Structure formats: structure tokens, C-alpha cells
Amino acid sequence: MATAFFRRMGGKVVEYWKNIGNDYWIVTKETAENMKKSKIKSAIVISGLGGLLYAYKTNPTQDHFWESLALARHQLVLTPETIRNARTSKEVRARTEYLNQKRLAYYNCVFFSLITAKPFGEDCSLYETHCKSLKPSLFDLPRRIVDIGAFNRWLLLDKALVDLDVSSLEWVEHNQELQA
Questions:
Q1: Cα–Cα distance for residue pair 145/122, rounded to 1 Å
Q2: Is pLDDT above 90 for 99?
Q3: Biological process (GO) annotations (predicted)?
């Protein structure tokens, strides 16, 4: 009796997958025919899909952020204090403080990633952390964004590190010497 049941069900399963395969084959053929008719539209759609696939494959992870932050701190330590950019130091220090306070939250948005600062750390037990009406709203999100990750890069951290070894104070002193 059990073998008859599996024979009957097995035949239905095989038929189901044959129908699915046939449907996909027909869609593939029709898509190829439509692509031959309008080549420019096809090129634009394929480029867009390729870009989305590339963004998906190169979406940075939370571990990638920790590694990038560690490398930024390492570069900061290796740069002498006299030529270190104050804005870069401030940006890296702020991210490090958020990390130490356990206030960073990672969101994977499929094609890009967000790192946001939570108002309180995980260990905090204040009333404000538990009250639902005091939780930050979605409108506060832009102010809480610490970094945006896309294409294997953390955009705001990379922007902060551009002039790591160019101190604005150094240029002020140089301009004062030239004017004197």
C-alpha cells in the first residue's frame, strides 16, 4: 500500500516539475525574441540588472565595517599628531565610542548597508529604553546614520579618511607666515 502511494505521489511531483520547467523554457524563449526586437531597451534592462547584481554581491557586511574601522584607527595612530586632520580624528573617535558603548546597529538593505547609532547601548536600563512611546521614530533615521555601505566600501568613513594627513591648522600657520 505504501509503495502505491509513493508511486502515485511521485508521478504527480515529477509532472509538477516538468510543468515548471516547461513554463520557464517558454518564458526564456519569449524573452530572447523580445530582446531581438528592441535591442536598446534590452541593453538598458540588462545593465540595470547587472548593476543590481553587482551591488548585491558587493554589499559590505557588519564584519567588513569592523575591519574598516580598525584599519582607519590604525592609520590614525600611524599618522603624527602634528599633521593629523582633526575632522578625521573626530569621525573615527565617534565611531569608536559608539562601538564601545554598543550603540551601533547594522541593517542589511540587500543592495546597500546602513550603520546607525542607537540612542542607548544594549546594557542601558533607563526608562526611556523600554518605553515604546519614547523610541526614536523613522524620521530620526537620517540623523542617526553613521555610515552607508555599498560596493565593498563604507562611504562616509572613506570620505572622512581622504585628507587624513592634512591638518587644517598646518595651513593656517603657513598662511600667517606668508602674510607676515
A1: 18
A2: yes
A3: protein insertion into mitochondrial inner membrane
Residue type, 17: W
Cα separation, 76 vs 92, whole angstroms: 8
pTM beyond 0.85: no
Alpha carbon 177 to its chain's center: 45
Specify whether the CB–CB gap between 52 and 121 falls below 8 A: no
Distances (CA, A) of 162 to 72, 85, 87, 90, 156: 11, 10, 11, 14, 10
Label residue 111 exposed, middle or buried (CB < 10 Å: 0-12, 13-18, 19+): middle
Predicted confidence band of residue 36 (pLDDT cuts 50, 70, 90): confident
